[in-house]
Design goal:
The protein is mainly α. The protein is 70% helix and 0% strand. Helix 1 runs antiparallel to helix 2. The longest helix is centred in the middle third of the chain and has 46 residues.
Length: 145
Protein backbone atom coordinates (compact mmCIF):
# COMPACT_ATOMS: atom_id res chain seq x y z
CA UNK A 1 0.00 0.00 0.00
CA UNK A 2 1.28 3.44 -0.94
CA UNK A 3 2.32 5.79 1.89
CA UNK A 4 -0.24 8.56 2.36
CA UNK A 5 0.80 12.20 2.03
CA UNK A 6 -0.65 15.54 0.97
CA UNK A 7 -0.56 14.77 -2.74
CA UNK A 8 -2.47 11.49 -2.49
CA UNK A 9 -4.67 11.69 0.65
CA UNK A 10 -7.93 12.52 -1.11
CA UNK A 11 -10.24 9.64 -1.79
CA UNK A 12 -12.89 9.56 -4.47
CA UNK A 13 -15.73 7.13 -4.92
CA UNK A 14 -15.75 6.82 -8.71
CA UNK A 15 -19.44 5.93 -9.25
CA UNK A 16 -20.53 8.85 -7.08
CA UNK A 17 -17.95 11.57 -7.85
CA UNK A 18 -17.29 10.89 -11.52
CA UNK A 19 -20.50 9.33 -12.84
CA UNK A 20 -23.61 10.08 -10.78
CA UNK A 21 -22.92 13.68 -9.69
CA UNK A 22 -21.65 14.89 -13.10
CA UNK A 23 -24.56 13.15 -14.81
CA UNK A 24 -27.16 14.80 -12.56
CA UNK A 25 -25.47 18.20 -12.99
CA UNK A 26 -25.50 17.69 -16.77
CA UNK A 27 -29.16 16.61 -16.77
CA UNK A 28 -30.19 19.56 -14.60
CA UNK A 29 -28.31 21.96 -16.90
CA UNK A 30 -29.80 20.31 -19.99
CA UNK A 31 -33.31 20.58 -18.52
CA UNK A 32 -32.89 24.27 -17.70
CA UNK A 33 -31.43 24.96 -21.15
CA UNK A 34 -34.26 23.15 -22.91
CA UNK A 35 -36.90 24.78 -20.71
CA UNK A 36 -35.80 28.18 -21.99
CA UNK A 37 -35.09 27.23 -25.60
CA UNK A 38 -37.93 24.78 -26.31
CA UNK A 39 -41.17 26.71 -25.87
CA UNK A 40 -43.29 23.84 -27.16
CA UNK A 41 -42.25 21.50 -24.33
CA UNK A 42 -41.32 24.09 -21.68
CA UNK A 43 -43.41 22.57 -18.86
CA UNK A 44 -41.99 19.07 -19.42
CA UNK A 45 -38.41 20.39 -19.36
CA UNK A 46 -39.11 22.46 -16.26
CA UNK A 47 -40.43 19.37 -14.50
CA UNK A 48 -37.41 17.38 -15.73
CA UNK A 49 -35.10 20.11 -14.37
CA UNK A 50 -36.81 20.11 -10.99
CA UNK A 51 -36.64 16.33 -10.75
CA UNK A 52 -32.97 16.12 -11.74
CA UNK A 53 -32.10 18.94 -9.32
CA UNK A 54 -33.93 17.10 -6.52
CA UNK A 55 -31.88 13.97 -7.26
CA UNK A 56 -28.66 15.98 -7.16
CA UNK A 57 -29.66 17.69 -3.92
CA UNK A 58 -30.68 14.39 -2.33
CA UNK A 59 -27.37 12.75 -3.28
CA UNK A 60 -25.33 15.57 -1.75
CA UNK A 61 -27.44 15.76 1.43
CA UNK A 62 -27.44 11.99 2.00
CA UNK A 63 -23.65 11.91 1.94
CA UNK A 64 -23.60 14.65 4.59
CA UNK A 65 -26.19 12.79 6.66
CA UNK A 66 -24.10 9.60 6.61
CA UNK A 67 -20.99 11.52 7.66
CA UNK A 68 -22.79 13.14 10.60
CA UNK A 69 -24.27 9.81 11.69
CA UNK A 70 -20.83 8.25 11.66
CA UNK A 71 -19.41 11.19 13.56
CA UNK A 72 -22.08 10.80 16.25
CA UNK A 73 -20.99 7.19 16.71
CA UNK A 74 -17.41 8.37 17.14
CA UNK A 75 -18.50 10.92 19.79
CA UNK A 76 -20.14 8.07 21.73
CA UNK A 77 -16.97 5.97 21.43
CA UNK A 78 -14.85 8.88 22.67
CA UNK A 79 -17.16 9.23 25.68
CA UNK A 80 -16.84 5.49 26.43
CA UNK A 81 -13.06 5.60 26.18
CA UNK A 82 -12.79 8.70 28.33
CA UNK A 83 -15.14 7.25 30.94
CA UNK A 84 -13.12 4.03 31.04
CA UNK A 85 -9.83 5.94 31.38
CA UNK A 86 -11.20 7.96 34.32
CA UNK A 87 -13.23 5.32 36.16
CA UNK A 88 -11.75 2.00 34.98
CA UNK A 89 -15.14 0.52 34.13
CA UNK A 90 -17.68 0.34 31.34
CA UNK A 91 -19.91 3.36 30.79
CA UNK A 92 -22.93 1.24 29.77
CA UNK A 93 -25.17 2.02 32.75
CA UNK A 94 -24.22 5.71 32.75
CA UNK A 95 -24.79 6.03 29.01
CA UNK A 96 -28.34 4.72 29.33
CA UNK A 97 -29.17 7.64 31.64
CA UNK A 98 -27.78 10.33 29.32
CA UNK A 99 -29.07 11.72 26.04
CA UNK A 100 -26.77 11.96 23.05
CA UNK A 101 -26.71 15.76 23.39
CA UNK A 102 -25.44 15.41 26.97
CA UNK A 103 -22.80 12.90 25.90
CA UNK A 104 -21.68 15.21 23.08
CA UNK A 105 -21.45 18.18 25.48
CA UNK A 106 -18.85 16.38 27.62
CA UNK A 107 -16.28 16.45 24.82
CA UNK A 108 -15.64 20.13 25.58
CA UNK A 109 -14.77 19.52 29.25
CA UNK A 110 -11.31 18.71 30.57
CA UNK A 111 -10.73 15.62 32.73
CA UNK A 112 -11.45 17.26 36.10
CA UNK A 113 -14.59 18.99 34.93
CA UNK A 114 -15.76 15.84 33.16
CA UNK A 115 -16.16 14.02 36.47
CA UNK A 116 -17.95 16.90 38.21
CA UNK A 117 -20.28 17.63 35.30
CA UNK A 118 -21.08 13.95 34.84
CA UNK A 119 -22.22 13.82 38.47
CA UNK A 120 -24.43 16.86 37.92
CA UNK A 121 -25.84 15.47 34.70
CA UNK A 122 -26.76 12.22 36.44
CA UNK A 123 -27.94 13.62 39.78
CA UNK A 124 -29.39 17.00 38.82
CA UNK A 125 -30.34 16.14 35.21
CA UNK A 126 -28.15 18.88 33.69
CA UNK A 127 -29.06 19.47 30.04
CA UNK A 128 -26.43 19.61 27.30
CA UNK A 129 -26.68 23.39 27.34
CA UNK A 130 -26.17 23.52 31.12
CA UNK A 131 -23.18 21.20 30.83
CA UNK A 132 -21.58 23.43 28.19
CA UNK A 133 -22.30 26.62 30.15
CA UNK A 134 -20.69 25.10 33.28
CA UNK A 135 -17.39 24.32 31.57
CA UNK A 136 -14.60 26.64 32.72
CA UNK A 137 -11.64 25.10 30.82
CA UNK A 138 -13.19 24.72 27.38
CA UNK A 139 -11.57 22.19 25.03
CA UNK A 140 -12.25 23.22 21.46
CA UNK A 141 -13.53 20.68 18.92
CA UNK A 142 -12.53 21.97 15.48
CA UNK A 143 -12.98 18.59 13.80
CA UNK A 144 -16.79 18.37 13.93
CA UNK A 145 -18.48 18.55 10.51
Amino acid sequence: METQNYSNYKKYYIPHHFIFLPLTVFLTTLGIWEAYSNAEHRLEWQMFSILSFCLLYLAVMLRQHYALGNQDRIVRLEFRLRYFELFGESSGQVEEKLSFDQIAAFRFADQDEFKKLLEKALNENFSASQIKKSIKNWKADHMRL
